[in-house]
Write a structure and sequence with these properties.
This protein has helices at 11-15, 22-33, 40-52, 58-71, 79-92, 96-107, and strands spanning 7-9, 36-39, 72-75, 112-114, 123-124, 127-130. The protein has 136 residues and is α/β, with parallel strands linked by helices. The chain has one domain (7-130): Rossmann fold. The strands form two sheets. A four-stranded mixed sheet has the order 1-4-6-5. A two-stranded parallel ribbon has the order 2-3. Strand 5 (123-124) and strand 6 (127-130) form a beta hairpin. It is globular, with a radius of gyration of 14 Å. It starts with 6 loop residues before the first strand and ends in a 6-residue tail after the last strand. The model has no long low-confidence stretch (mean pLDDT 95).
């Protein structure tokens, strides 16, 4: 991970690793291979969606997350992140869980948040939102 761009990954980027969309799967894999940061919330959300909506086996979910955990730094969901998320949700109108992603990224001192769920190019504090799958 570059010292200049500290990247945080939202759950949707990880989910494309196991997607049938080859272009997005390849893009997600390439980004994650460079390393980055994500929170335990992202691991939890990935496991929940992969098990419930994609009918993956627990052993397969563990395998995917083992690779992700080897490539990325994992940060906890802290009380500080919780409090910051409430403020972000109130101020920006984001859902609480999107706000928790932003708060965790900010607390990890990231400068880039890869996600499809927020406005591409938006800047929140020192954090820039980037849709990694957006066509140029």
């Amino acid at each position: 991970m570059s010292g200049a761009e500290r990247c945080f990954f939202d759950t949707n980027v990880l989910l494309y690793l196991v997607s049938s969309d080859g272009r997005k799967a390849d893009r997600a894999e390439a980004l994650l291979a460079k390393g980055g940061i994500l929170s335990v919330q992202v691991l939890n959300e990935f496991a929940s969606v992969a098990l419930r909506k994609q009918n993956m086996l627990v052993t397969d979910v563990r395998e995917v997350l083992a690779v992700v955990r080897a490539l990325c730094k994992i940060v906890p969901v802290s009380l500080e992140a919780h409090d910051a998320a409430l403020g972000l949700s109130e101020r920006l109108g984001f859902s609480f869980y999107d706000s928790l992603i932003v708060a965790a990224a900010e607390l990890a001192r990231c400068t880039l948040l890869y996600t499809e769920d927020m406005q591409h190019g938006q800047v929140i504090g020192g954090l820039r939102i980037c849709d990694p799958f957006r066509e140029p």
